[in-house]
Amino acid sequence: MKTFQTLLKITTPKRGTYSITDKIEQCVKESGIQSGLCHVFCQHTSASLIITENADPTVREDIEYWMQKTILDGDPAYRHNYEGDDDMSGHIRSMITQSSQTLPVSNNRLNLGTWQGIFLYEHRTGRFERRLVVTTQGA
Amino acid sequence: MKTFQTLLKITTPKRGTYSITDKIEQCVKESGIQSGLCHVFCQHTSASLIITENADPTVREDIEYWMQKTILDGDPAYRHNYEGDDDMSGHIRSMITQSSQTLPVSNNRLNLGTWQGIFLYEHRTGRFERRLVVTTQGA
Amino acid sequence: MKTFQTLLKITTPKRGTYSITDKIEQCVKESGIQSGLCHVFCQHTSASLIITENADPTVREDIEYWMQKTILDGDPAYRHNYEGDDDMSGHIRSMITQSSQTLPVSNNRLNLGTWQGIFLYEHRTGRFERRLVVTTQGA
């Protein structure tokens, strides 16, 4: 049993979803771990991690539509709005998705379903550099 | 410290929640692991895992009511609707619940609270076979 | 590699968010584990764990505002209301946030982002004692 930890930095040019499946797969490969778990942690409170369909990009457009409808940008009732209309909505979006995802590792690979991809979801409208801590544990 | 991994296949006849607590407990027992963590991963993007009250089934009926009210089936604004009205709503429902649950293991048993159960939540209206990867790690 | 498990009991006087970052940090320190993962599990179905901004308390007031707007207390359509208007809403709030959070451990410390805090979110309006199982695994 061992632990292997890596820091990834991802630049997000604007609000939206960015596939990180290949980058996480690479971390697992480098770990040499055959069987275990890979944990991906997003060190931010207005960006998060989702697992969703990896084939048709309109899935992620519809997710963004639902997010905008359900979690208003610039709701006048928000008290916390220092950084703009996407500040508070970014925190709520992050909370109802996930700060981390844990994935099974089998045969030194992520053991995802056929249609699953892992995405960094940037909830702010501007450009950011986001940090992910990737920890693989197993035998 | 060791890792023990199993694949479970669950048939879901229709939309709804299916208790998997006993099946996961069995995986933990087979692992022989006394103290550690059990990770359950759903390999799909329109079915997910929730932890909720295990006693009164109306809890899960009310959850389904809230889901239908908050995440519309067949919203005309969705672009992704190849597989019907429950296609895109299934992806959003999965995203705001969880693709995986991690549970503490103590004395070779799941260390859940008295009222907690683990449920596979099928978000599609048809019949599916769903795959769960169960990984127990510990000493 | 080793596993270190602790039970924390937290009294929540009323609905709201309670910082547990320092308490979890203490569990990690006691484990002696340098590199790995820390898993925090809430043994309840109407209290949950969130990671959000740790500086401005209005962030968590706005989260509570959004929760009340999106998940009605005492919705007349709920069937499960034995324990009052906050009973069923508490279960739904718990489901769309998280029963557990897994956090990276580096150099015997939680490796959180600068602005991240871990909060126990009490969804019931009364006073409760909540139990958290904290499991740290690593080398």
From TrEMBL, chains A, B, C:
Cite the InterPro entries for this sequence.
Answer: UPF0047_YjbQ-like (IPR001602), YjbQ-like_sf (IPR035917)
Q: What SUPFAM superfamilies has UniProt attached to this entry?
A: YjbQ-like (SSF111038)
Return the similarity comment.
Belongs to the UPF0047 family.
**What Pfam families would the database entry show?**
YjbQ (PF01894)
- Provide the protein name: Secondary thiamine-phosphate synthase
Top-level taxon of the source organism: Bacteria
| Gene3D superfamilies from the UniProt entry | YjbQ-like
